[in-house]
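Subject: Sanity check before I submit

Could someone independently write out the structure tokens for this chain? I want to compare against mine line by line before I put it in a report. The sequence has 188 residues.
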Amino acid sequence: MPAKRPPVPLSLERIVDAALHIADGQGLRRLTMRRLGDALQVEAMAIYHHLPRGKEALMDALAEHVTAVQVGPEGLSGWQDRARAWARASRTALLEHPGVLSLALTKPPKGAALAAITEQAEQLREAGLGDAGEAVRALRAYVFGSVAVEVQQSGWADPDATVRDARTADGEREFEHGLDALIAGLGR
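---
Independent answer below. Compare away.
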């Protein structure tokens, strides 16, 4: 008889990964603490040890996960290249987890997400952009709006659809076109 494997310890990372899997596969409305506990093979109450505020803390963690992108300035010259890199990384993160897009759109940035925004502004300022804070707000608004439109056009959010990918055939081209226009405007 094979030895029984010890259970994998519960961690915030495991909880977030399982919650993302549920939200992306079944939708955010189907994400309950009980369903999450079942997916993790633990009692739902065990999750509260890592998230004392319960579901609200879980929603914050999910929003932070998809919005706390990091982009190093290495190999990027000028603020335009840095802005493009941040926008592309943000788009990728959001499209990887369309099930939590609504949280990214509605939850104020906290923790790692807020630190990432600060880092982005600092990188743009160091690269020569005057009002980097305003630029970051404009870039975030563009990325979030663009991704929301792409997810809508993909049919991913339709409960009767069998679409598994939130990306569209023209999504990247349209995103890049709009990003070029925004960066040109920020440079004036």
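---
OP: Matches mine. For the report I'm noting this point. The CA atoms of residues 23 and 100 lie 7 Å apart.
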